[in-house]
Amino acid sequence: MENKKTILDIHNFSVSFEQYGSGFKKTTLPVIHNLDITVHQGEMVAIVGSSGSGKSLLAHGILGIQPYNATLGGEIIYNGEVLTEERKKALRGSEIVLVPQGTSYLDPLMKVGPQVLKGKNDKKLKERLDKIFKGYNLRDNVYNLYPFELSGGMNRRIMVSTAMMAQPKLVVADEPTPGLHMEMAKKVMSHFRELADNGAGVLVITHDLEQAIEVADRIVVFYAGTTLEDADVKDFEKEETLRHPYTKALWRAMPKNGFKFIDGIQPYVKAMPEGCVFGPRCPHFTEECKCAIPYKNVKDGRVRCIKAEEN
Amino acid sequence: MILLIIAVSVASFVLISVSPIDPLQANIGQAALGSMSAEQIEKLQAYWGVGTPAYQRFFSWAADFFRGDMGISLLYRQPVADVIKVKLANSLYLMTIAWLISGIIGFIMGIIAGINKGRFIDKAIKGYSLLIASTPAFWLALVLLMVFAVWLQILPIGLSVPIGVEASGVTFADKIQHAILPAVTLSITGISNITLHTREKMIEIMESDYVLFSRARGESTYNIIKNHGIRNVMLPAITLQFGSISEIFGGSVLVEQIFSYPGLGQAAVTAGLGSDVPLLLGITVISAVFVFGGNLIANILYGIIDPRIRRGGKLS
Ligand SMILES: Nc1ncnc2c1ncn2[C@@H]1O[C@H](COP(=O)(O)OP(=O)(O)OP(=O)(O)O)[C@@H](O)[C@H]1O
Ligand SMILES: [Mg+2]
Fold first, then answer.
1. Which residues does chain A have within 8 Å of residue B223's beta carbon, measured at their own beta carbons?
2. Are B118 and B247 part of one and the same domain?
3. CA of residue B163 relative to chain centroid, distance
4. What's the mean per-residue pLDDT of chain A?
5. A69 inside 8 A of chain B by CB
6. What is the Cα–Cα distance from B262 to A143, expressed in whole angstroms?
7. How distant is the Cα of A272 from the closest Cα of chain B, in angstroms?
8. Are residues B175 and B270 in the same domain?
9. Residue A244 belongs to a domain
10. Which residue does chain A place closest to B311, by CA atoms?
11. What's the average model confidence in pLDDT over B67-77?
């Protein structure tokens, strides 16, 4: 991967919300902080994290569709240049595409065909879409149906189709496969894989570690709004090659590795622990962990844990 | 619908019956009554229905009504149906103009404000709407009357046709000229409600996930409004617009009174104050028909326009 060009380089990224608490006191809620991710051309990177860790927010931040009261910090470099809000506007929908998380991202009152075509009446585009629909086992008549007339899985395929309509250099897919049965999920993933093999960078957000291991090249573990580990997919073959205690815990929770879950829950933004965000649940937690934890390079990967060592 | 009309007519009848207005005093006057013989007074009492029990009067009215006879107006001494026909024609075009103007302008202003939420234009439209919404219609009518009819003298002060001109000599332009002020008053008061509601809805739509996704797909704001905004704001707007018929009817009573515009609203006031029971009931029922009719049309349109209702049964 080293010789491939970097398409997306997110550095020290943060998303925070300004909130007015009691007595007009303004507080900032850093939902995402200290986030680092890189995606190379031809590479498929999976972001794995549990619910509410800020995955969708990250995806929306890359596309420039974050909520109005959100403030972005840090730096996003796309294709060698800083990705400013203007550049996001210019590139999204053509070079950078999003596959959104839920069916609510489709207009309930617009037929899905015209919706995918953005209301354009173009014969060439329509033919292209027909081919894509066929590939996803969507019959011709689907073109003229409304989202409410389709099943959840079909709507998901419609949203994936929107990404396939463009010729993207960067795909951000926010949990594109839940609700699809195994075979269709694999098919959708294989299409993202194809896009990557053809030179695009693909960032897939999921909470399904097994699926991520199956299709991705690299896995980034996301926890409480930050990245804890960045590991090559082959590091997930054994627990020993993994770096962070949380990643190891995720690994042990996989069905084939014993289904063992750790106690506790992800901390809430307003009650972040001092120092390491994983501290309260970590078996190796000590006083030393109560400081700003750097994201350091360990064994060709990266980890946010002071105890992770080269060995 | 029929049940509703029965309920409305019973309710208004009860209200009239308990009203303290003595029809004789109201219409003939204390002085005239004093100089009349007992016999004459008795005759008049019979004419106005004084002394007959209320339920009896109601049933005789209702029985006639269902035969298609709305009775004779006691004040106009003409069949109620004829009186209403004339007044309704006058009012209807006043109200239709006001209804269309307020609907269209309110819709457009609401959309403009909604998509520019927080900007100057939004604040201006919202401020204007709130100001108008809290302004009494009669006060607005008086101000317009003063400015355009008294000071500038470019529009007539009242009535629906010029004074002293034969019916055949009244031109369409005359009619329009006389309807402008009342129609404008009615529209202005109607606009704010529709604007504020449309704005609210539009803001909600512009913040929806599907608009967000359209943005992410690089659609322009214009395209988003065209493809998703109008489409989704249309349904609530229709409900609102047809629901506003009742407000226009209510508003017209006041406005017609101020502009001495001989419409249904004015007739209702006259009938109410003069205890012209058949006329008042007739007007009430007709108004109810229009208001319910409006809601009915809104429901039917909803079924035609909203695919979730139109096609809902097919695939579930
Ligand atoms: N507009 C907002 N104002 C304040 N907080 C917000 C706002 N939008 C999102 N958040 C917070 O950001 C956090 C992350 O939300 P996000 O949807 O990105 O999570 P996620 O990782 O995608 O979860 P899921 O797996 O359920 O999709 C949530 O805890 C939510 O409370
Ligand atoms: Mg999400």
1. 118-119
2. yes
3. 26
4. 88
5. no
6. 55
7. 29
8. yes
9. no
10. A149
11. 70
